Amino acid sequence: MRYEISLEISYEYAFAASGGRHLLRMLPAHIESRQHRISGYVSVNPAQEERTDRFDFFNNAVSEIASHHSHDILTFKMLSQVECFEQFRSFNLSPDLEKLKEEMSQLQNLSNESPLHFIGDTPRVRINNDIKQFALNSLKGGMGCLDIIETIGLKLHEEMTFDPTATTVETPMEDAFKNREGVCQDYTHIMIACLRSIGIPAGYVSGFIRTIPPEGQERLEGADAMHAWVRAWAGTETGWIEYDPTNALFVNTDHIVVAYGRDYDDVAPIKGVLKMFGEQKTTQAVDVVLI
Questions:
Q1: Per-residue pLDDT band at 224 (split at 50, 70, 90)
Q2: pLDDT tens for residues 31-43?
Q3: What is the pLDDT of residues 137-166, one digit of tens each?
Q4: Of 178, 190, 105, 97, whose CA–CA distance to 139 is shortest?
Q5: Handedness of CA 176, 226, 221, 64 (dihedral sign)
Q6: pTM: predicted TM-score of the whole model, two decimal places
């Protein structure tokens, strides 16, 4: 599958900002055997006085920008072409939880791909007794990690209600879980907490998803959105797999990865500070077009 992807995020300020500094993680990733970024760029208007393009610890493309002049509108644009490759699932060789624990105890590698970075609490994913009990109640004896990941994802999908008005980007994961409603960010954080609570390393994936309009309706430009899903480690033989609890499925060619991290804080598309006061208005437009 080959896609052309565009993302535009714009901020309009009631009073001009006098400067700012931002980290951008907007460009789709280039991942061996998973997806190939054919082309891509990120532009900023107004032009910034400082810019550095680099990769962070998890190998995500990052642009660090800074402005020292006043502006009342700030617009970020990303345009990229990406080819996604079919992900074939082989035999289920994932261990049960006890065997996974043994495998984890033997790990010594601390590279960006190491599962050891994806256990325990992180700023937006905190394990508690309710989360752990929910995960344990989903299990049956003798299940391997791959089946556990799918089972917990399915149960979350069944019990949660997708409601874009129920939460914001700052809503604590615990509130979304208690109310059983939220968006892809909430589904993903909750599932990560469930998996970590029982010993399965899990992280956060930000990206895009191909959406198909209802039959008989035209596709609306700019109506797509960024998406989030889970990356979990299912043992030495199986390695990392990706699961989308919002849609209850293993990820394949309809999902385009932008960034990997421990939770949303590691992969936020825009993070930064501004010298400003007053209100601001944010608009976002995303297009994922099959070409």
A1: confident
A2: 999 999 999 999 9
A3: 999 888 999 999 999 999 999 999 999 999
A4: 97
A5: positive
A6: 0.94
Please provide the size of the chain in residues.
291
150 domain residue, yes or no: yes
Contact 211, 289 (CB under 8 A): no
Closest to 202 (Cα-Cα) out of 244, 237, 242, 147: 242
CA torsion angle for 79, 44, 281, 163 (degrees, to 10)? Answer: 30
Question: What contacts 129, CB < 8 A, 6 or more positions away?
Answer: none
**Residues 106 and 81 occupy one common structural domain:** no
| pLDDT interval class at 244 (50, 70, 90) | very high
* Closest of 164, 124, 259, 253 to residue 205, by C-alpha: 259
Quick check: is 142 in a domain? yes
One domain for residues 161 and 179? yes
Three-class SS state of 175: helix
Element (H, E) at 242: strand 240-244
pLDDT of residue 220: 53
Q: Is 251 among the domain residues?
A: yes
Together in a domain, 69 and 141: no
Contact 66, 50 (CB under 8 A): yes
> What domain range includes position 139?
97-265
The residue with tokens 């949303």 is: 264
Rounded Cα–Cα distance for residues 164 and 173 (Å):
14
